[in-house]
Write a structure and sequence with these properties.
This protein is of the alpha/beta class. The chain has one domain: Alpha-Beta Barrel (TIM Barrel). About 40% of the residues lie in helices and about 20% in strands. The strands form three sheets. The protein has an eight-stranded parallel β-barrel with strand order 1-2-3-4-7-10-11-13, surrounded by five helices. Strands 5-6-12 form a three-stranded antiparallel beta sheet. Helix 9 packs parallel to helix 10 and helix 10 packs across helix 11.
Length: about 325
Amino acid sequence: MRAGFGQFQQATPEYLRFAQQYGATDILLNTPDLPSYNGTWPLHDLVNLRRNVENYGMKLSALENVPTQFYDHIMLNGPKRDEQVDNMITTVRNIARAGIPVFGYNWMPSHVWRTPTKLIRGGAVATAFNYEEANKMPLTHGRVYTDEEMWENLEYWIKIITPIAEEEGIRLGIHPCDPPVDQLGGIPQLFRSYDNYRRYLDIYPSDNCAIEFCQGTVSEMFDSEGDALYEFIAEMVQKKKVLYVHFRNVSAPNPEDFHEEFINTGHVDMYRAMKTYYDNGYDSFFIDDHVPHTHLDTDWGHRGRAFANGYIQAMIEAVTKQ
């Protein structure tokens, strides 16, 4: 088990030096700032990105997300679906051939939703969500979509892209919907329960079809009270479905009303979670995610991320050296 850094778009010397100095072994870039060529990412730019990370002694272990306009018609069965499918096949092939082993993405055409922020420990600012407030917002894509529409679109895509991933030797994983509520802006949030994740994994059973495991979002699901969260972690790790982990904490197992927390002050027992990954054979990396904004911190959150990363490294040591 290893500690990494993610959630930045550009592999600049400043970010990479920061990650290197704080002991990261793995880098994840979120929607990297790359030129687009007709809705694809060219191979040479991806190779240069990987080499840039390697120049700092770390590994570019995953890319997370492409611009939504690369595949929104795939998610919603729009008129450009087939064109976007072809382009996404090209991009996935290029990511694999550039030597980047994991591609994580989401099934949220309306993106992540939050409502006004909340002050937590010492006046730190945390993102928050309230479903009642969010439901006052207008439709995001002109009409209400049904669950089965979204499932049909997902199944169409998974059955096309998974054989490509197998052929290229790359692993693909989907992030849970954030927040994991029934719908937002008229769009069903498919990845809102453990059973829905199991249904997704059964569409095309393959080692190359897996989960981008955002523990914070997974822990918001209603059925994550009691032992359910830790049992789900164990189940997915045993099945080799966890590509990497967003190791973060939130205030409550309630997707309709929660706020972000410091990594050590939310409702999840983070030691028990880390021990569950370890005891079940997890062998990939953890990154920080959605850290609270603290006094005099940068927009990206260097101070908050350093604190979260140090905590992650300490938890790894605690369970591996017990």
